[in-house]
Amino acid sequence: MVWKTTDYTGWGRVHHATAELARPERARSLKAVVAGHSCPAIGNCRSYGDAALNDGGRAIDMTRMNRIIGFDADTGVVTVESGITIGDLAHVFAPRGWLPAVMPGTGFATVGGCIAQDVHGKNHHNAGSFGQHVLSVTLLNGDKRTVATPTRNAALFRATMGGIGQTGVIAEAKLQLKPCPGDVMMVTERRAEDWDAHIALLDGSQATYCVGWIDTTAKGDALGRGIIEEAELAAGLLPKAKPSKKIPMDAPGFALSAPIVRAFNNAYYRRVPTSGRSSVKRIDEFFFPLDKIHDWNRLYGKRGFYQFQNVVPLDQVGALKAMLELIAGAGLSSPLAVLKRMGPGRAGHMSFPMEGYTLAVDFPARETAVDLIAMLEDMTVDAGGRLYLAKDALASGPAIKAMYPDHGDWVKQVNKADPDHALETDMVRRLNLREAG
Amino acid sequence: MTKTKQNQCWIILGATSSMARAFAQAVADQGASVILAGRDMDDLKRSATDLSARGVTAEAVKFDARDIATFQPIIDRATRQDGVINAAVFVGSMPPQDEIDTNPSLIDGVVKDSHTGPAAFLTMLAPIIEDRGAGTVVGVCSVAGDRGRIGNYVYGSAKAGFATYLSGLRNRLTRAGGHVVTVKPGFVDTAMTWGIEGMFLVASPQKVAADILKAVEKQRNVIYTPFFWRYIMLIIRSIPEFIFKKMSI
């Protein structure tokens, strides 16, 4: 009765899988499941492509393993079962002066998932990646239990950060939280009129949290226009939470058609006055703006969507502008597009970040989008940049291996940790990631 | 979150189940302290640590429905505390009916886990509720107790017995200022139902916990959760026996 045959998808809903899932609720049952049958662990499946999928195989749903199993209020060190979500941690600890040091764009991401993708947040330029704040992980492989830290089993630890779950089932993790003065954000929004202004504002920002929304429908002189959001944690009165909404069904295809997206983006851009504005927001509202709309991925209809996210080195900013021109010309994109300057921080061989600029854009799943993304992938390779495995659904194995120079070292570690290849996923097979390129 | 229930303590029997965990979290969110009682002490300690880290007073204690010696220490522990003592019973066991058919001695255990064990515990607790003139007992039964079916009638009969016990206990405690809520959940998304064929309209443990809490606050007597199970069971109960006996639902 432990295994349940389930159809599930990545967040982009393009890739599907049918797998037998176990969903343990206690450490004891998790241990028994892994000892009986090693297989990949999955969380809330917020990776867009096929990172969490294991079609025709088995997987362990970790979402019920979600407890805090240790907390030191003096040091802010918390130990958790890996199925706990970032949103839960922020909700519990922010009122008491602590916050996860790095938070991705959705509070539904589990700690296990954040480690497996070595995620980054709006403070990457100063805080680095999620894995840089992980003090230890407990991995299960068959009946073996291994604790890895940056100093003990260091190579295994490094292979686990951003290691897309290939080193073992991440059962527990110890995290260093960061002190926070209160549970509100002081947010300043400014318009950036074009690409150069956008880049200049990102380069000049001194803020702890900084991210740019980009209007990917703007062309010509307005190419690259957007809104820069800068924010600091603050103490103050908590604005009331807005009720969350649900998308009750798959939206029809025209919901995110070009004229609608153009009109929306125009209004969204003009909502911020030319002189900019500052406001107080709730932490969740700033970090997880889309979490208020449950199942927002259904807005793209039943065909789903792709998210393209790359990063290019600082001196390749021109190449990124050329990619944006291509995107704006194609008229395919959605309102969800983000531009951000990243710092060098990364914790593992297969971690995404590099110092440079990252661009993330959603495209409804169409043939033309596939072609466009293939072109963007080539341009990213030429620029010495890389694609993000948490988002990828389409890339080729050789391209990914070329983007990740430490891939060979990672392969050695994961093949040692999982010699039977029991933890392979659809993504690992698609990109042939367990073989050195 | 409003911390309005700070003088409340909840004893949660069978606290390792996901439904019990969700309920413990729900009462803790309101400021009540919790005593997590069950057999798997390692797991209970994890849950207690979790709740403590969330700012709640929580502790783990041993409770085995089949071992009455484990009852008194919990009662003693609760009475050392001032304020209102409440209890929520989530214990019960449901071995597959075919296993019971080949090994009828399993029936004793099912009845102890689902009925006589918790009933004995609540009988020991009742004088304290009467003494303090306040306190709520939540007893989780099952829609399976509303009518015996071929698939799980031993479990159903134990839960039916427990429901009748709760009805009597309600009769007793009401006159002393206490209250008893009988909860009949339909299909809930727990480890017990994971992978079982034919589940429909499955509710999350959080939804069930929220329903129970609402029933406690409104002093409801018998609730079905989610609510529509009241109507499903109304239909099932009203099928004449001469037809029902030939059905397999």
Say how many strands of chain B there are.
7
- Count the helices of chain B. How many? 9
Number of strands of chain A: 20
In spatial order, strands of the major sheet of chain A run 15-11-13-12-18-19-17-20
Structural class of chain B: alpha/beta
CATH topology of chain B: Rossmann fold
Write down the domain tally of chain B. 1
Major sheet size, sense and barrel closure of chain B: 7 strands, parallel
Briefly summarize what is shown.
Chain B: Keywords: Oxidoreductase, Signal. Chain B: This is Short-chain dehydrogenase. The complex is a heterodimer of chains A (about 425) and B (about 250). Chain A has helices at about 25-35, 85-95, 110-115, 125, 155-160, 195-205, 260-270, 285, 315-330, 365-380, 395-405, 405-415, 425-430, and strands at about 5-10, 15-20, 40, 60, 70, 75-80, 100, 135-140, 145-150, 170-180, 185-190, 210-215, 225-235, 245, 275-280, 295, 305-315, 335-340, 355-365, 385.
Structural summary, described in words:
Chain B: Pfam families: adh_short. Chain B: It comes from Aliiroseovarius zhejiangensis. Chain B: Keywords: Oxidoreductase, Signal. Chain A is α+β, with helices and mostly antiparallel strands and 437 residues long. Chain A has helices spanning 27-36, 86-93, 111-116, 124-127, 154-160, 195-204, 258-270, 283-287, 317-330, 367-382, 397-403, 407-417, 426-430; strands spanning 4-9, 16-22, 41-42, 58-61, 68-72, 77-81, 98-100, 134-141, 144-148, 169-179, 184-192, 209-214, 226-234, 245-246, 277-282, 293-294, 305-313, 337-342, 356-364, 386-387. Chain A folds into two domains: 68-181, Uridine Diphospho-n-acetylenolpyruvylglucosamine Reductase, domain 3 (2-Layer Sandwich), CATH 3.30.465.10; 184-396, Vanillyl-alcohol Oxidase, Chain A, domain 3, CATH 3.40.462. Chain A is built from 13 helices and 20 strands. In chain A, strands 15-11-13-12-18-19-17-20 form an eight-stranded antiparallel sheet. In chain A, a hairpin with a 6-residue loop joins strand 1 and strand 2 (16-22). The longest helix of chain A has 16 residues, at 367-382. The radius of gyration of chain A is 21 Å and the shape is globular. Chain B is α/β, with parallel strands linked by helices. Chain B has a single domain (8-244), classed as Rossmann fold. Helices cover 47% and strands 16% of the residues of chain B. In chain B, strand 1 (8-13), helix 1 (18-29) and strand 2 (33-38) form a beta-alpha-beta unit. In chain B, helix 3 runs parallel beside helix 5. In chain B, 44% of the residues are buried.
